[in-house]
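User: Mind token order:
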Amino acid sequence: MKIEIYTFYEKRIKYFITFILFLYSIAVYNKITLALDNNVTIYFFWGNGCHNCKEADNFLKLLSRKYPQLKIKYYEVWDNAENARLFSSMAQAYEIKVEAVPTIFIGNFEPFVGYLSDDTTGKSLDLAIKHCIDFGCIDPSEKAKNLANRKIIPQTNTSFSEQSIIKLPFLGEVELSKISLPVLTIIIAGIDGFNPCSFFVLLILLSVLGHAHSRKTMLFIGSIFIFFSGLIYFAFMSAWLNLFLILGQIKEITIFAGIIALLIALINIKEFFFLKKGVSLTIPDKAKPRIYELARKILRESSRPAMITGTIILAFTANIYELLCTAGFPMVYTRTLTLNNISKYSYYIYLVFYNLIYVIPLMFIVIIFSISVGKRKLSEWQGRILKLISGIMMFYLGLILIINPDILNNFLISLGLILVSLITSSVIIILSRRFSKI
């Protein structure tokens, strides 16, 4: 692979790498400084004579020596009516029943009810405290204060757990609160995967490789392209994730992310009506001939290492343009992800899951091309439709981030979001076609 292939992309690649390193540097710097400042207050409700409470207390004392930032507030509830009332009000604020002691409240984490062992409950407590030290958590008393300022709705005989459990085929009973985030991940990543910029570059590559009439070559090179596209996208999303984990305690950050998402959404919607007019987030026409040339040079290479190198460069280039095409989705998703108090490792597991869903449409394209060894082209009309759907979806997500991001944790809201987006897009497409014929 000749070195001049890199020259066209050199400036863009430098900007991309600089941006990623900038986000990571902010995250690392703030993580160090905030970790020193974030004090963690936990509320420990226990009963006099409770054996499990004693075990939990012993472990918490170990944690208090391990983490100087940790402050533990003890409340005995069996012999103290005032503490029992506080326990009840805090349980109501966290939407749980007063069932057993010990019960431990930490930030926005689901309360720890009972204590099994140091290796199970204790380990989870350690992770939660570490998270709050690193990224900051609210004082549980704040939730109780917020509840006191709201109008209390009398409880019905139906328990919270009964309301949040549904039966699904093959899966049985599933708690809605535990599947809302995975469903939201599938929805956003699925829409993000239908990226016209990525489709355009991949279709160029496969169309050129079609001249080789080799299914193995198309499948191999296409898979390399997809793998590195997902890997680069994962790195970009990780940068956003770390930035939001550090700055996430600032309420305005969520509003800012929502506003940016709205702006990107409006530009994408505009592309459906006025393609490449005014501000545009599509691949510029002047870049397309060079992308074609890079794909042709990949085909002309005789060695596999050279073909792989060229494909990696092409994947890198495609991702630079993808960041412009659908930059709002990674930003909205990672911000939504950080609004959920899960472990640090879980954040990255969700990012891996997101990127696996994200590359599925690309995988289907590669498989279809490999089977048919034919030529396909993404038409302008199809590209406009993809822009419209992603724009509508991003628009609704931006509004939700600004108004009330908590509703994204609702399973039905997540499903309704994709349904409303598709209906809105369909209506616009139908009306556009009808008026264009008049």
About this structure: The first helix runs from residue 7 to 37. Residues 41 and 422 are 45 Å apart (CA to CA). The chain has two domains: 36-150, 178-437.
